[in-house]
Structures are given as C-alpha cells and as structure tokens.
Amino acid sequence: MLAVALGLYYGFHASLPNTSTWGDVAFLSFVLMPAVLGLVYLALPLRAARELQLILVAIAFAILAVILHQAELNTLADFAKLGAMAFAAFWFLNFFEALSWVVLVACIVPWVDAYSVWRGPTNHIVHKHHHVFSTLSFAFPVPGEDSAANLGLPDLLFFSLFLAAAARFGLRVYLTWILLVASFGATIAIAVAWNKPGLPALPLLSVGFVLANADLLWTRLRTPTPKRVI
User: Fold this and answer.
1) How far apart are CA 87 and CA 94, in angstroms?
2) What's the CA gap between 141 and 149, in Å, rounded?
3) Whose CA, among 94, 105, 184, 218, lies 20 to 30 Å from 25?
4) How do residues 1-39 score in pLDDT, each as one tens digit?
C-alpha cells in the first residue's frame, strides 16, 4: 500500500493543489518524507542478511539507478538510489564492532557535512553543477509544482546507518526513526526560514539519533567492556 501511495503521488503530484511555502514544508516534513523513509524502516529486517548479500544488493540497486537515470526515469532512479544507500549502510554497519563507534561517527560527520556544504565540494556542486547534485540526491517533489526538496545520498546513507545501528544494538528503533525523519524536516524548515538554498542535514540527523537514545547511550558507554579471556 505504501509503495502504491508513493507511486501515485510521484506520478500526479504536479496536478495537486498548490499550497503556501510553509504548507509545502509541512507536507514534506509530516507526510512525504515519513512515507519515503518508512521504506527503510520496513527493510530493517534485511540488515541481518550476510555481508556479501547486502553489498551485492546495494551494487545492484546502484547499477539500476544509473540505468533508470540514463532512461530519464528519474523517479524510479531515486528509489533505486534509496535502496542502494540503505543496503550499503546495512553492509557498512557490520564493520562497527561496538556502539561507541556509531556514537563517534555521529560526533564527526556533522562537522564534515557542514564544511562540505558551506565551503567544500557540496557547496561547489550545488552552485556550479546543480545537475550533478540532482543526480547524487533524492528528490521530494512539492505538491502542485515541478520543484522539489532534495536530500543528498550521504544523508540517506547515514539515516539508514543510524536506524540500523539502533536495531542492532538494542536501542529505541521507532523513536530513532521518528527523530531522524523529523531532523530532515527541521533542516528544510530552517533553510526556508533563513532563505538558504541548502543546509547540511547530518548535524540534526546526528542529534536526532543521540536524543532518541541519550540515556541508553550514556549507560552503555559508561559500562566498561568486559576483557576478553584468552
């Protein structure tokens, strides 16, 4: 049902009534983004597959995305990109031996993302090569318009990584999903309020992951890891 609803929206969104700017922000934040990212939530059980299977599926989705993009089937290409990022994140998580590694990533990537968006390669791509950014992002089309809000593929990768980490390490999966999705909506709202063409999404995404599990993270990280007996 969710896939059908998304297919109908993406096929006919331009024919829907056009609302105000803040109406568009509310729709994207509370309806469309949760619906799209709900697919990652539903795919979480697949994270337990073997590493080789996960990376092969991620590569297959990536190849499919390229083929669909070349065929100018951009909506289908976007969902193939989402699949590629989700399964790549599930595969990548297997290399994290402890929860502390995930927390460390959550502390580092916001600074890297902020630098990239404001002064680094992302800034250059957005302002000088917008078509490249469109190719390396996922579009959330605005109802009644041909415009869209875009999330970069790294944003989708880390969204999937944090969500899968919550499931793997026994954290609050559903609350994590809610706050991760909300972080994207908040980033869009701030960008609109500040009249910015784009803002880094990973800072608030990382905050969402930490806030959803703050007490559990504090307890787990304070508990010494038992020494392995040889």
Assistant:
1) 11
2) 6
3) 105
4) 898 999 999 999 988 988 899 999 999 999 999 999 999
